[in-house]
Amino acid sequence: MTFTPHGKHLIAGKWVASETTFISDPAEGTAHPFSVGTPELVAQAATAAEEAFWTYGYTSREERAIFLETIADEIEARGDDVTAIGTSESGLPKGRLEGERGRTCGQLRLFAQHIRDGKYLDRRTDGALTDRTPPRPEIRMMERPIGPVAVFGASNFPLAFSTAGGDTAAALAAGCPVVVKGHSAHPGTGEIIAEAIHAAIGRCKLHPGVFSLIQGGNRKVGEALVTHPFIKAVGFTGSLGGGRALFDLCAARPEPIPFFGELGSVNPMFLLPAALKARAHELGAGWAASLAMGAGQFCTNPGIAVVPEGAEGDAFVEATATALRNTGPQVMLTQGIAKAYRDGKARFDSRNSVRPVMTTESEGRTASPNLYEVAAEAFLEDHTLSEEVFGPLGLVVRIGSGEDMPGFARGFEGQLTTTIHMDDGDTDLARKLLPVLERKAGRLLVNGFPTGVEVVDSMVHGGPYPASTNFGATSVGTLAIRRFLRPVSYQNLPKALVEGDLAL
Ligand code: NAP
Question: Mapping DSSP to helix (H, G, I), strand (E, B) and coil, where does residue 365 land?
Answer without folding.
Answer: coil
